[in-house]
Design goal:
The protein has 225 residues and is an all-alpha fold. It has two domains: 1-107, Serine Threonine Protein Phosphatase 5, Tetratricopeptide repeat; 110-225. The protein is built from 13 helices and no strands. The chain has helices at residues 2-12, 18-32, 36-52, 56-72, 79-95, 98-105, 115-123, 125-131, 135-143, 151-167, 171-182, 193-213, 216-224. Helix 2 packs antiparallel against helix 3, helix 10 packs parallel to helix 12 and helix 12 (193-213) runs antiparallel to helix 13. It starts with a helix and ends with a helix. This is LuxR family transcriptional regulator.
Length: 225
Amino acid sequence: ALVTLGVYRESREADSGVAELFARARDLADAAGDSSQAALRARFQYARTKFDRGDLAGAAAATDEGVRFALDNGVEWSMFGTAIRTLRYLVRYTTGDWAEADRLAAGFPLQVVRPAEAQVSAYALFVEVARGLPVVEERLRWLAPLWHEDQLANYIARGLAAEHALWRDEPEAVLEHVDSIAKTLYGDGATFIRIAATGLWAHAELAARARAAGDADAVRRAAEA
């Protein structure tokens, strides 16, 4: 109940005390000892709140503890188990500790066959795409058949696939990925800002090519897209 209250309060206002509410929920769940899922849910929300508010040191400590809890209780593949594992990776990626992020990603599956595996695998692309690593192509080949089965995996994987295509000078491929995400629940609001920026870059590249070729119609289409 405390976790639900905390999430509700966050949706209504910027509540600086919500992390403490999630911490209380975690402690109560630990004391009860009858639901590892409830305890893990509270841990994830606590860590996520730290991350969202820019407390990266606090988020790192919270995700480390949360992942240990998930592994100790055999719930690392539950919904909140995968969530806190990938959040731990994102914290390291955000702080610039890419060596540690790579180490964590080594535990993410590459040859995926289930949507839950695809979600986890897709996160590894953050560092792999940024570094231009050869494994990106193989990971995307495994993820592609599962894009239509999970919107979160589709959002993460195709968003990063779009960035990968941009670096490879393939603007048409970029727009294919962007258009796919635009048709999902992630195609609006704050979640779409990064994707939209990638798409705008691709349109600008197409417009530049069209100008160089003297193709006025293509320039107009790129400007209107």
